[in-house]
């Protein structure tokens, strides 16, 4: 969504400008058509300029390029390890094998650079390059498998057959590779690059015969795969979960934050590593402080079940131990995430990448959330994006900043003795923290699983983590907003296209027309809205029929006016 012209330029916009400039500089030094011929040193230099590391055979995807911390298995890829893993039969070490693997590593580096800089999209947003996360996943699962199969084929074949790691693949090899879902996209991408003169190793088209060779083995028919996109969250589930989330944010949140912000002073004179000491201080705090809801009434007990970490017993009220404080903090962050996903309708990469000063105000007083889009952006470091922010979202984001900063002040208490000096504050940059009572939870680290956080929130609020039989997933919130707006606004595709950050209206329609029942619901709402809009026209035409000297058809024109007039006469 475009902001008013008077809104100040944000830091995210400046970062996007830097990313665009870096991409342009890289293209000047390494044109697309030259990437297929890069030697080892040039490939590493190009890779480093794009921000993917400066070590040969090691492809890095840092958080700056994707807006969040991603899984370690795709954050740093060793091409050599991936090729050795996917070799059909591990051959004995030899100079020829090492040479082929080194060539395969260079092949994968060149291909990754071309996908990152060139027109790599094959089915959505054609003509754009692959975003960093999608590319890393493809390199991990598909490209390394293709190249490893080519290495194995070259180890078996004669030199005359070695047309390249992909060009040397037989029909049987291609059929077997395509049994892996989505691997065909990369084979198609290689062919597309070759047709444009950007790549020199693609499946040989003559091998893909239309007629079955009666001398060859029977080609097994692969089962038809039908993708099942995440469905919208059911209305009844939203109606039940909504009040629980709002209670956590608006009633529990301010009280819990007051406790967390008081802990450094509350525990300053005790050894916090002792469980009894922490419990005693918590009881003393609740003796002196009464938690109240937004209306000023004391919270005798939560109106909803707040379950403990195990999910089997209820959190004591008031909480009596440190683990329960951790659980409540996790519940509060989960509620903030819930509100943010519903209010922004953003992709998870966009939600995870927002900064602690993401809320900005235009001169007209309206708040906006400033962030970045990575999915459809041509910029290496993402593209600046702004979302209109309702009051509930602004409040939730402000509380989340207080929550994470409070925990960053609390954590040093666990690493110091009584004799140490003042509490040190950790300077963090992430917006969503790894909160909870589990041993691996560390508030100084970024949240790694948003889907798990949402499902845990549902369990702890006594709700099903699988509404409609499907796991809660961040993308379901995006689908939910699309559905609700689709049935509420006749011209919803264009409104949603701006809200969801789509470049093509067909992509937007994919969200609001996911099933037949939804299409019927949208059509019913649209029909009722058309009838409501037509009511005034019909009343004007009817009044003109009974008012001498009134303009024909009540001042309305068009070919339908006489037909409506005749219909009114017939009805009367």
Description:
- With 572 residues, this protein is mainly alpha-helical.
- It is 51% helix and 4% strand.
- The chain contains 20 helices and 5 strands.
- The strands form 2 sheets. It has a 3-stranded antiparallel beta sheet with strand order 3-4-5.
- A hairpin with a 5-residue loop joins strand 3 (359-361) and strand 4 (367-373).
- The longest helix is centred in the middle third of the chain and has 32 residues, at 235-266.
- It is flat and about 90 Å long.
- The two termini are 49 Å apart.
Number of strands: 5
- Spatial strand arrangement across the major sheet: 3-4-5
Written as H for each helix and E for each strand, in order along the chain, the element string is HHEHHEHHHHHHHHHEEEHHHHHHH
Low-confidence stretches: 1-18, 417-426
Distance between the termini: 49 Å
Largest sheet: 3 strands, antiparallel
Give average pLDDT, whole number. 79
Query: Helix content range of the residues, please?
Result: 40-55%
Q: Taking Cα atoms only, what radius of gyration do you get, to the nearest Å?
A: 30 Å
Count of helical regions:
20
Sum up the overall morphology in one term. flat
Q: What fraction of the residues are assigned to beta strands by DSSP?
A: under 5%
Given helix and strand content, the structural type is mainly alpha
């Amino acid at each position: 969504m475009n902001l008013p012209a008077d809104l100040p330029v944000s830091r995210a916009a400046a970062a996007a400008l830097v990313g665009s400039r870096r991409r342009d500089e890289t293209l000047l030094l390494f044109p697309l058509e030259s990437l297929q011929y890069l030697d080892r040193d040039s490939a590493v230099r190009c890779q480093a300029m794009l921000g993917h590391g400066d070590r040969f055979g090691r492809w890095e995807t840092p958080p700056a390029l994707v807006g969040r911390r991603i899984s370690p298995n795709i954050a740093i890829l060793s091409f050599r390890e991936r090729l050795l893993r996917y070799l059909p039969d591990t051959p004995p070490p030899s100079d020829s094998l090492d040479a082929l693997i080194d060539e395969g590593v260079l092949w994968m580096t060149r291909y990754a650079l071309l996908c990152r800089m060139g027109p790599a999209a094959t089915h959505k947003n054609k003509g754009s390059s692959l975003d960093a996360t999608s590319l890393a996943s493809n390199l991990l699962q598909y490209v390394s498998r293709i190249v490893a199969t080519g290495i194995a084929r070259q180890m078996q074949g004669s030199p005359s057959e070695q047309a390249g790691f992909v060009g040397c693949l037989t029909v049987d090899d291609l059929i077997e590779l395509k049994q892996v879902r989505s691997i065909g996209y990369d084979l198609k991408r290689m062919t597309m690059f070759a047709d444009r003169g950007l790549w020199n190793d693609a499946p040989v088209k003559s091998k893909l015969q239309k007629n079955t060779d009666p001398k060859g083995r029977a080609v097994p028919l692969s089962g038809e795969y039908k993708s099942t996109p995440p469905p919208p969250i059911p209305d009844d589930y939203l109606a039940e979960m909504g009040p629980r989330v709002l209670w956590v944010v608006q009633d529990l949140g301010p009280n819990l934050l007051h406790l967390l912000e008081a802990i450094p002073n509350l525990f300053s004179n005790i050894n916090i590593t002792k469980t009894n000491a922490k419990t005693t201080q918590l009881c003393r705090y609740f003796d002196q402080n009464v938690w109240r809801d937004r209306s000023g009434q004391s919270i005798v007990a939560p109106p909803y079940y707040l379950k403990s970490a195990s999910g089997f017993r209820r959190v004591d009220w008031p909480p009596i131990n440190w683990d329960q404080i951790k659980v409540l903090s996790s519940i509060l962050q989960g509620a903030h995430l819930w509100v943010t996903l519903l209010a922004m309708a953003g992709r998870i990469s966009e939600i995870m990448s927002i900064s602690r000063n993401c809320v900005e105000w235009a001169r007209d007083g309206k708040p906006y959330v400033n962030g970045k889009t990575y999915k459809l952006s041509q910029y290496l470091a993402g593209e600046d994006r702004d979302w209109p922010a309702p009051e509930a979202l602004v409040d939730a984001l402000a509380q989340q900043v207080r929550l994470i900063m409070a925990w960053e002040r609390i954590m040093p208490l666990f690493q110091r003795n009584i004799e140490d000096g003042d509490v040190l504050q950790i300077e963090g940059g992430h917006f969503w923290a790894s909160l909870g009572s589990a041993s691996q939870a560390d508030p100084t680290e970024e949240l790694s699983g948003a889907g798990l956080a949402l499902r845990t929130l549902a369990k702890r609020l006594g709700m099903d983590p699988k509404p409609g039989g499907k796991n809660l997933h961040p993308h379901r919130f995006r689908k939910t907003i699309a559905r609700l707006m689709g049935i509420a606004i006749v011209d919803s595709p264009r409104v949603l296209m701006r809200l969801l950050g789509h470049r093509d209206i067909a992509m937007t329609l994919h969200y609001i027309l996911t099933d037949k029942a939804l299409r019927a619901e949208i059509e019913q709402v649209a029909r009722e809205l058309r009838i409501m809009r037509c009511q005034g026209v019909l009343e004007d035409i009817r009044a003109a029929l009974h008012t001498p000297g009134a303009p024909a058809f009540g001042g309305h024109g068009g070919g339908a006016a006489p037909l409506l007039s005749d219909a009114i006469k017939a009805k009367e």
